[in-house]
Amino acid sequence: MADMNYDVLVIGGGPGGYVAAIRAAQLGLSTAVVERENLGGICLNWGCIPTKALLRSAEVLRNAKHAAEYGLVIQNPSFDLDKVVQRSRKVAGQLNGGVKHLLKKNKVAVIEGDAKLLGKGQVAVTKNGAAVGTFGAKNIIIATGARARTLPGLEDDGKLVWTYRKAMTPNTTPKSLLVIGSGAIGIEFASFYNELGAKVTVVEVMDRILPVEDEEISTFARKQFEKQGMGIITAAKAGNLRKGADNVTVAVEANGKTEDITVDRVILAVGIAPNTENLGLENTKVQTDRGHIKTNQWCQTEEPGVYAIGDVTGAPWLAHKASHEGVIAAEHIAGKHPHPLDVRNIPGCTYSHPQIASVGLTEKKAKEAGYDVRVGRFPFIGNGKAIALGEADGMVKTVFDAKTGELLGAHMVGAEVTELIQGYTVAKTMETTEKELMETVFPHPTLSEMMHESVLDAYGRAIHF
Ligand SMILES: Cc1cc2nc3c(=O)[nH]c(=O)nc-3n(C[C@H](O)[C@H](O)[C@H](O)COP(=O)(O)OP(=O)(O)OC[C@H]3O[C@@H](n4cnc5c(N)ncnc54)[C@H](O)[C@@H]3O)c2cc1C
């Protein structure tokens, strides 16, 4: 006998789970969320938000260091690491409280504890090993997310070798730091610590940093990071970690040679692992692929009435993808006809300095997919607002289908591009062509004018470059 029955029981209160729960409640379904740690999940507590708070502190510090370029006098700008971290934790705490409030407002029940599927629409919840109860649900949404991946020989210890949780709550600034992995998470931490004055080296196994981004963009970003003093070693393998009392030596193999690098701390940013253990999947027909739960376009698993969304279902591991899937799952449960998610229209952002943002196909991927492409580029140096801001390093690249004029992809590096990318995302979602983009009026002076110019450039019509 279940202690309580719901129309929808969501396991995990991250941006996938809490959004799914609110949407389900909006649609009149009785809904509960089970969360074992913090509402808001990794995103609000240990991911997207606290890292952006840290990066904002780094940005303010950088601006203060460059004050003289703006005619301002700020002597010896410095930082208090504890206060930087405290601010980041406070921001996370504020948003965690906000999610609590939203769930209450929408009459979503919150059950604290660890959920386990028992099969046949039953879920057992325990807290610290003690039973909280058994709950019945017509529909279950698994939104258990993911955690930092470690590799054999590359395990974190929370002291000398960090993953993201420790990396965002340091008690001292390392003088030297090795970041293993150059995806968005690795690059954001590299950028943060570099700004705080650490000697940062990034090691990437692929032949370029930010490997999912357009090649030109990652080359551009690499040059900027190197100009800021960051060391970057690509096509390289890190291994053989040897720990000293207060440092770590890592063997880095590149170009057929192995070099020992000794640093104060190491950050592992080598991907994430889905949270599927001890979830009771064996009591269901739910299938996994390399640990990630397999779903169809409506986020349904193989087990009738069981859905899965967000990081636990695989790439791209992004909060907005998780939330969007949450809405799709809730609406499908409610018998609505949601629009399936098109992965080509999901933007991706890296909030380093410079920022990187993109949506859709890279030039290479578009060519591999058989498109005859037209490519437009526009540099930040050609934009009045960028120069006025003192942010003249960057570029905007657009990729079009030469036959139809459809926008296939947009790729940017430079100041505020993470805010700009949404313009192209709307355009792409609406299957816009170059014609509409050229006819769109962009306000002056803004960085967004470069988005217009990049489109014009693809058709040989750029005005300001
Ligand atoms: C350092 C870092 C920076 C990031 N920055 C960005 C960014 O800028 N933009 C972006 O889009 N994404 C970013 N991400 C990724 C983003 O955090 C994830 O994509 C997002 O949190 C996934 O949401 P989710 O709901 O699928 O899972 P999660 O946020 O992981 O939430 C899952 C929740 O389920 C709970 N849970 C797990 N198992 C159980 C169980 N058995 N019972 C009860 N509860 C359970 C967990 O405690 C957790 O709260 C970042 C990630 C990291 C680590």
UniProtKB/TrEMBL annotation:
Keywords: Cytoplasm, Disulfide bond, FAD, Flavoprotein, NAD, Oxidoreductase, Redox-active center. Pfam families: Pyr_redox_2, Pyr_redox_dim. Residues 346-454 form the Pyridine nucleotide-disulphide oxidoreductase dimerisation domain. It is an enzyme of class 1 (oxidoreductase). Transmembrane segments: none annotated. It catalyses: N(6)-[(R)-dihydrolipoyl]-L-lysyl-[protein] + NAD(+) = N(6)-[(R)-lipoyl]-L-lysyl-[protein] + NADH + H(+). The keyword Transcription does not apply. It is found in: Cytoplasm. Its main location: cytoplasm. Its cofactor is FAD. GO terms for molecular function: dihydrolipoyl dehydrogenase (NADH) activity. Residues 6-326 form the FAD/NAD(P)-binding domain. The keyword Cell wall biogenesis/degradation does not apply. Binds 1 FAD per subunit. Its EC number is 1.8.1.4. Gene3D superfamilies: 3.30.390.30, FAD/NAD(P)-binding domain. It comes from the Bacteria. NCBIfam families: lipoamide_DH. Belongs to the class-I pyridine nucleotide-disulfide oxidoreductase family. This is Dihydrolipoyl dehydrogenase.
